[in-house]
Amino acid sequence: MFRLSRLVLACLMVSTSAAHAHTLIANHTPMRSAAVLEDVGVPNQLVTETDLLFQPRRHPFNIDDFLAEQLPHWQPVSEAIMHWSGASGIEPRILITTLITNAPELEQDITLDRISELKLLQAIEQTASTLSALLYQPNTQTSNATLGHATQTLVSTLHSPSDWQTWQTRYQAWFGDQKPLGQYTLSSRSLVAPPAGFMQWPWRQGYAWIPNGPHAHSGSGFPLSSIDVSYDWPQWGGTTYSVTAAHDGYVTVLSRCQVRVTNDNGWATNYYHMDGIQVRNNQWVGKNTKLGTYASQRSVALCQGGSSTGPHLHFSLLKNGRFVSMQDAVLGSYRIQTGRYSYDNDCRYTWLTQTQTGNKVCLWRRITNP
């Protein structure tokens, strides 16, 4: 992202290409039809949506202990698994089981050479992104109302729909006691926005930063759960500033460049493209506690791959592990109107409302975190 001049900041719109600052791998895997799944005997509720969603506070997962016991040769990719689980919102147990089902040779206890490690890293990123893209795809392709969308999502990610039994057997053997399938049905779809006063902007109180257009956690599609913020949108190598917790909660450090804070009320926020993370797993933090800074260097901001066009914080809203729309969410004293699509910067459709005055504020304006 180039440095924005005062003239550009004064404009009501910024071009879509300039606004795109964060992208996961695009999904090209089609959703398999319910009829195809029924032909190979897939149960109607092989998995539920909650099985697929990553809720580190409710269902903690110690990746290092698991790999040491079951897949010791995967230890070099432990951070990648947790990173992409956080970025995609997909439960790491689901991700690991799917990876092994699609490539059973990966279970062999052999030392990974550099080429094999790179292939596995790519598979982790692609599988997490595909599961996420299908899960958040509008549920319009379910021809049988009894077949769950989550089941279609999972089986569509397998190389063959007939692999579902292998997947189920492997999951039950590894994780059936930790997180049984189909036991949890928490829903976030009916919850419109966090409670008033619960969240601030993810930077220090009293400072003013610049947000761009709301967008999906993956950079495209829906829900518009995320927003990018920066003090001044510098080029790579520019000065960056402190990121703070938007609300009270418990920390999950997902990687060197990604953190999640989860409150026991189910609301959570993700902080991506981070550097100098100074909090630890399971630490309780209060609103406005410093978590670290947003990264100045591209290699740090993208510590496990992905895409970004310049230093910024990619900030996302979740409820019960599900990325949810920022529509009507109040951060500090500003209510968000999300717009028509990802990175919509047209002030006729997307804006902030100053709740104390009722004034409308266009995006790409400097706003103060009270």
Automatic annotation (TrEMBL):
InterPro entries registered for this protein in UniProt: Cell_wall_metabolism_enzyme (IPR050570), Dup_hybrid_motif (IPR011055), M23ase_b-sheet_dom (IPR016047), Pept_M23A_Blytic (IPR000841)
Recorded superkingdom: Bacteria
Named cofactor requirement(s): Zn(2+)
Keyword Signal: yes
Keyword tags: Hydrolase, Metal-binding, Metalloprotease, Plasmid, Protease, Signal, Zinc
Pfam families in alphabetical order: Peptidase_M23 (PF01551)
Boundaries of every M23ase beta-sheet core domain copy: 242-324
Signal sequence annotation: 1-21
Name of protein: M23 family metallopeptidase
